[in-house]
Amino acid sequence: MVNIYLENLDEIDESFYGKTVNVSGWIEDSRSIGSLMFLTLRNTTGKLQLIIKKNLVPEELWNQVVHLTRQSVVDTNGTLAYNEKNNIVELIIKQLTILNSAEHPLPLDPTGRVDSGLDVILDARPLSLRKPEIQSIFKLRHNSLMYIREFFIKNNFIEVNTPKILSQGAEGGATLFKTQYFDKPGFLAQSPQLYKEQLMLAFERVYEISHYFRAEKSNTTRHLNEFVSIDFEWSCKNNSETMDLCEDLVKYLINNLIKNNSKELGLLNSDLNHHLDAFDRITYEDVINDLNSLDNKKNYGDDITEHDLVILSAKHKSFYFITDWPSNIKPFYISSYEDSELSMSFDLQFSNIELSSGGVRIHDVNKLKSNIERSGLDIKNFESHLQTFKWGMPPHSGLGLGFDRLIMVLANRKNIREAVLYPRDQDRLDP
Length: 431
Prior knowledge:
The protein is an alpha+beta fold and 431 residues long. Helix content is 27%, strand content 27%. It contains twelve helices and 17 strands. The chain has an eight-stranded mixed β-sheet. Strands 2-3-4-6-5 form a five-stranded mixed barrel. Strands 8-10-9 form a three-stranded antiparallel β-sheet, with no helix packed on it. Helix 4 crosses helix 6. It is elongated and about 90 Å long. The chain starts with a strand and ends in a 21-residue tail after the last helix. The mean pLDDT is 94.
């Protein structure tokens, strides 16, 4: 009889009943009742009950299974049967090979019966991923990347890869990680901002999904020092059109997750249907007025802090844009309205979490030079960037969207470290 290798445990149907199959995975549970041993086998696709009958297997195999530790990896061979009484599918074992035994005590319980703190989970990250709820976060993450790329391809964007070791930062300041690049100083990239602007010279629509680095000494549930950003830039588009594309991107992602990843969303108690309404658009001035009306006193021209956003979330509980920020609190490359101190800019928020910052860029080289100097940055560090603006640079706009924060929101998590496999912050450089 030909054995069937059964890989997807969620796709077993009656056509498999009575057939001999091979299944691999790890043992999640075991219990014995006299001459019967019940094992729960799990892999990334689901779980299956194994039954070993003492009188049907060699004594050596029975003794191995009796002493088999939970989370050990096995390869099994047996007959699939449907148990009508308990309404479950069972594999009646003929052979079982222990591929690798798990040493006990384990640092955490992957079944979830015993809760573990986040530090314990991160210290034993690969083992924690055997817990279906935690694994679901990263299945959502995988699928989200696929849907995001689909969206950009459908909208005629080209994917690019820009350098991560630079001679200067896109925004300067103290949040750069400095490194030695042979005999020159270098910096880890904060964003692809300058490069994606330069690429407007030829490609007109580009996007990048990549890792970036900020040397911020922030100890919050929303900050990491290494993060993944989704960036896009496109030419001849205004602020409103760029916000439209951002909103369309997020809704495209949510709709696909609802359609194709309901199992993972269910395990994470994440109901995304509430976030498909039109995203509100409020101005910076509206925010100042709202904060003052909520007894959180702010002056026009103040930056909006994390505490302010928490206060503001009383009125805005889903996705919304904050537009028209004062120019002096935005980066040097952001354009201003004519004869105005307001910038053509926006931030995308989810409740109190900032997800994205974007806007219209300055494409006139003289205005760009003036803004660099006004920001206190050394113009010499931007010479190679500035020269590209003399070669016929079109008007352009774009944004950077924090992918890890977005996944934190979509997966209904409270800490960004839950949404990243191996997070890097001030205290964590290992594993």
